């Protein structure tokens, strides 16, 4: 399988596309304005101690001083003793003291950032704990055998100076992948210590990686043919980064100076737009309908125009098998997670059902995100789950429609007209008016003046008052006002 990364850089946004066998499989997007400082490590200076609040304010070279509570200070490092109670803040820090701290909460409004002295640095599968000496496993990894396996793999990397936690994403990770992560984190921590010795205070000792660097960290161990970047500045930064931390990727880096936008290669822009549509066409003529909700994602398969086989059962089976490939790709591309319900076209042959499930499992096996397929339910639906790793593509690129407010549909012109007629009668009964003016959208006004002119006339006779209809070009289809004159 051939794979490459395309990295598109603009001042406001970074986008990364993973291409496999000439087809877009994943898109990662990061907008500069939404990057926080959570995870950043600073060498700060205590500027004020507040005994009454059991807290201190720390200068980390931001606009506002950051907040450090006594409960967020690792007292063992300072007092060299274990204690069940939180010591008095005055025993832990004093004004003018330098502390290595990490941001756990971004500044909000008038409040500064929230800090801790318990430093952690995360990679794809592991979290480095410089102030610990043990191997921990995420509580979300429930399988006892897997927990035991992971602990046996990671424990040799721990010593009296540092420990590791296996993240939930590490479930199923191989020894080589975990080794790559541990070595990467050790190199990062060494750089942090070197900067601390130089008393680097104006800049972070460690800053959570930007997307362009993060994807290189996270794709360590994945076979890539090349990594193309359309920014010379970012390309140079990636060369420095990979030489220092992931040298095996340095030869794959390639600056892309082409006049054609890099995301026009492999039709990435077009595929991103298609990934925002509900309907996905299959080559055979069938299609998928994908609906994402808060609770779950539903996928419906239809044969459409596909009539390629002599009997209906074979046509249905072929469409379902083809759909499994499209489903796996769309889940990765749209980054859909949580509960997923797939409504395959009904099959009566049990062997066909088994082969469709096998095809779906094989297609999903290329996904780096953990998933599980639970087979056909009693209603003939396939239930599956896919781990949520980040916001879906739709949530990043789209917002709620101001017209339908997220419903996904609008009232018909006819429905709005009937609402207007009822509203006129209601207002007439409640208030004394000489005549009425109705303001509505062009489409609604045209419908009232033509298709519903008879009903409008009957309402005029019923209330004994004149009704005038006026179009408002700025009104959407559901908007209207009934004004008394």
Helical run tally: 13
Distance between the termini: 73 Å
Kindly estimate the percentage of residues that lie in beta strands according to DSSP. Answer: 25-35%
The tally of beta strands, per DSSP, is 23
Largest pleated sheet: 6 strands, mixed
Written description of the protein model:
By secondary structure, the chain is an alpha+beta fold. The chain has 4 domains: 3-34 and 212-269, eRF1 domain 2 (Nucleotidyltransferase, domain 5); 41-197, OB fold (Dihydrolipoamide Acetyltransferase, E2P) (Beta Barrel); 277-397, Aminopeptidase, CATH 3.40.630; 413-484, Ribonuclease E, catalytic domain (Hypothetical Protein Ychn, Chain: A). The chain contains 13 helices and 23 strands. The protein has helices at 75-79, 89-92, 144-154, 175-197, 211-218, 232-245, 268-274, 312-334, 350-364, 393-397, 413-430, 442-449, 453-463, and strands at residues 3-9, 13-20, 23-31, 41-50, 55-59, 66-69, 98-105, 114-116, 121-122, 126-129, 135-137, 163-166, 226-229, 253-255, 279-281, 287-292, 296-302, 338-343, 371-376, 382-386, 435-440, 466-471, 480-484. It has a 6-stranded mixed beta sheet, with helices on one face. Strands 3-2-1-13-14 form a 5-stranded mixed beta sheet, with helices on both faces. A 5-stranded antiparallel beta sheet has the order 6-5-4-7-8, with no helix packed on it. Helix 11 packs parallel to helix 13 (453-463). The protein is globular, with a radius of gyration of 30 Å. It starts with a strand and ends with a strand. This is Ribonuclease G.
């Amino acid at each position: 399988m051939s794979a490459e990364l395309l990295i598109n850089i603009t001042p406001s946004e970074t986008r990364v596309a993973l291409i496999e066998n000439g087809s877009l499989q994943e898109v990662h997007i990061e907008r500069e304005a939404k990057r926080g400082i959570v995870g950043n490590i600073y060498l700060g200076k205590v500027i004020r101690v507040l005994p009454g609040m059991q807290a201190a304010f720390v200068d980390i070279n931001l606009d506002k001083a950051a907040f450090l509570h006594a409960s967020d200070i690792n007292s063992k490092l300072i007092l060299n003793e274990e204690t069940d109670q939180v010591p008095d803040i005055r025993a832990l820090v004093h004004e003018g003291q330098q502390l290595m701290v990490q941001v756990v909460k971004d500044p909000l409004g008038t409040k500064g950032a929230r800090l801790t002295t318990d430093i952690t640095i995360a990679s794809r599968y592991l979290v480095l704990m410089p102030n610990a000496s043990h191997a921990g496993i995420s509580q979300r990894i429930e399988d006892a055998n897997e927990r035991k396996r992971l602990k046996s793999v990671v424990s040799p990397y721990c010593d009296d100076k540092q420990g590791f936690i296996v993240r939930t994403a590490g479930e199923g990770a191989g020894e080589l992948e975990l080794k790559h992560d541990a070595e990467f984190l050790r190199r990062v921590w060494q750089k942090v210590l070197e900067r601390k010795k130089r008393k680097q205070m104006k800049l972070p000792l460690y800053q959570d990686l930007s997307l362009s660097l993060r994807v290189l960290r996270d794709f360590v161990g994945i076979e890539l043919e090349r990594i193309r970047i359309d920014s010379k500045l970012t390309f140079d930064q990636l060369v420095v980064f990979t030489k220092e931390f992931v040298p095996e990727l340095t030869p794959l880096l390639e600056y892309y100076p082409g006049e054609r936008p890099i995301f026009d290669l492999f039709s990435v822009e077009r595929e991103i737009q298609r990934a925002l549509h509900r309907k996905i066409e299959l080559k055979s003529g069938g299609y998928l309908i994908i609906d994402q909700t808060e609770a779950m994602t539903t996928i419906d398969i239809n044969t459409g125009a596909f009539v390629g086989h002599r009997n209906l059962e074979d046509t249905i089976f072929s469409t379902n098998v083809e759909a499994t490939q499209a489903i796996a790709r769309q889940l990765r591309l749209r980054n859909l997670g949580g509960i997923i319900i797939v409504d395959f076209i009904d099959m009566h042959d049990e062997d066909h059902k088994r082969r469709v499930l096998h095809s779906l499992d094989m297609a999903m096996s290329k996904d780096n995100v953990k998933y599980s397929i639970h087979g056909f339910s009693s209603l003939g639906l396939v239930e599956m789950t896919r781990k949520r790793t980040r916001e879906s593509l739709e949530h990043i690129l789209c917002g709620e429609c101001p017209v339908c407010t997220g419903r996904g549909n609008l009232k018909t012109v006819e429905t709005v007209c009937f609402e207007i007629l009822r509203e006129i009668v209601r207002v007439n009964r409640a208030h004394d008016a000489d005549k009425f003016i109705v303001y509505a959208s062009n489409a609604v006004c045209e419908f009232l003046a033509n298709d519903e002119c008879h009903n409008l006339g009957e309402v005029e006779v019923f209330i004994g008052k004149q009704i005038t209809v006026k179009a408002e070009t700025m009104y959407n289809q559901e908007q209207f006002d009934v004004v008394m004159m």
